[in-house]
Amino acid sequence: MGDFEEKIGLELESIRGSGLWRELRCIESVQGSQIYHNGKKLINFSSNDYLGLAGHHTLTEAAKHAIDRFGVGSGASRLVCGSLEVHHELEEALARWLKAEAALVFSSGFAAAQGVISSIVGSEDVVVIDKKVHASTVDAVKLSGAKLRVFKHNDLSSLEKILKWADKRNSRVLTIAESVYSMDGDSPVIEDLVDLKERYGSWLMLDEAHALGCYGESGGGLALKSNLSEKIEIRLGTLGKSIGVAGGFICGSKKLVDLLVNKARSFIFSTAPSPIASAAALAGVKLVQSEEGDARRDKLWKCVSQFQKGVSSQGWPVAPASSVILPLILSEESNAMLAANLLRDCGFYIPAIRYPTVPRNESRLRITLSANHSQDEIAALLKAFSDLIVEVNL
Ligand SMILES: *Cc1c(COP(=O)(O)O)cnc(C)c1O
């Protein structure tokens, strides 16, 4: 095996040495506000299952019916013989929900980003991204070969400077932003973003991974909430967060979806999603728009306000923006690890988020709330935070 093990071993030592070691923790229960790890019950404040659908009986029943009807596997890629009725139903439901002409489902949001970006831009083109967009976007732009330019986080004057420069080139210009940023929970002003991209003739892709389900009427996200969905060429969503299952999708015009079916390599050369996942996601998409969906959103936002009020009254530096994602920045990696370990000892599951997921010295606890949390669970967390604040250096 030559030097393989030795070289990898050295790299692992260096990761460990810089305090950035990552390891998997096995969860022994269904996803919910309480999970089991090493036989111990922990209250979970780390999931992206914001509406608490991952273990919801309506979704699990839909999955069971799908097994009876379609089996467990899709057999091939969509273009070969794997394009099952349930995939088409899911795509129609997504398009209706998000008021788009069409939608296309991928095996993950990551794959959707790869597929769409490399289908619509190439080495002649320019892609302008917010500094904090998700890794899936960054990697996809690199894969496309397009020129990558980065604007300061949520800073539209920084974006405008780049668009002015790009405007003089005779090529496609694509701007990419998120409607809710995954590690900070903040948002751009969608109206201003759309105004800029229209003025400079850029196309816009909006990643709504963390907004769908939580924001806007029927949980349709921030593009719909601001009534600007028709001006946004591409919207990306995932089925693994508020929808509670797994998978990703793109929605937009019929022509965009036709192009993806013909060009997106992560769609064409990949086995179609399991009918179990797609059927459960279809049930999730319907539930999100139902009265129960509204009730779950109300509950979620009540949890957000209870936690935010409590934690800011204790003196923690909390972001002013109200969001289902609440980061508490603890700067140094070791500080964030200490906090996460102390919290786990007293029964809370909140992993520390470190470099390279966030910049160096911006390590944090990323607390996410869910409609499944009870007031008592949040009160217990607030009590733990009031003890924790004396243990960590703010
Ligand atoms: C999670 C996430 C994705 C990827 O979605 P998956 O379905 O988990 O692959 C894309 N963009 C953002 C902003 C995300 O948070």
Condensed summary:
The chain is α/β, with parallel strands linked by helices and 394 residues long. The chain has helices at 4-17, 57-70, 78-82, 85-97, 109-120, 135-144, 156-167, 190-199, 222-225, 254-263, 265-268, 275-288, 291-313, 333-345, 375-388, and strands at 34-37, 40-44, 102-106, 126-130, 147-151, 173-178, 203-207, 234-238, 248-252, 325-331, 348-349, 352-353, 363-368.
Fold and architecture overview:
This protein has 15 helices and 13 strands. The model has no long low-confidence stretch (mean pLDDT 95). The protein has helices spanning 4-17, 57-70, 78-82, 85-97, 109-120, 135-144, 156-167, 190-199, 222-225, 254-263, 265-268, 275-288, 291-313, 333-345, 375-388; strands at 34-37, 40-44, 102-106, 126-130, 147-151, 173-178, 203-207, 234-238, 248-252, 325-331, 348-349, 352-353, 363-368. The protein folds into 2 domains: 23-50 and 291-391, Aspartate Aminotransferase, domain 1; 57-288, Type I PLP-dependent aspartate aminotransferase-like (Major domain) (Aspartate Aminotransferase, domain 2), CATH 3.40.640. A 7-stranded mixed beta sheet has the order 3-9-8-7-6-4-5, sandwiched between helices. The chain has a 3-stranded mixed beta sheet with strand order 1-2-11. A 3-stranded antiparallel beta sheet has the order 10-13-12.
Helix and strand arrangement:
Blueprint: H1 4-17, E1 34-37, E2 40-44, H2 57-70, H3 78-82, H4 85-97, E3 102-106, H5 109-120, E4 126-130, H6 135-144, E5 147-151, H7 156-167, E6 173-178, H8 190-199, E7 203-207, H9 222-225, E8 234-238, E9 248-252, H10 254-263, H11 265-268, H12 275-288, H13 291-313, E10 325-331, H14 333-345, E11 348-349, E12 352-353, E13 363-368, H15 375-388
Parallel strand pairs: 2-11, 4-5, 4-6, 6-7, 7-8
Antiparallel strand pairs: 1-2, 3-9, 8-9, 10-13, 12-13
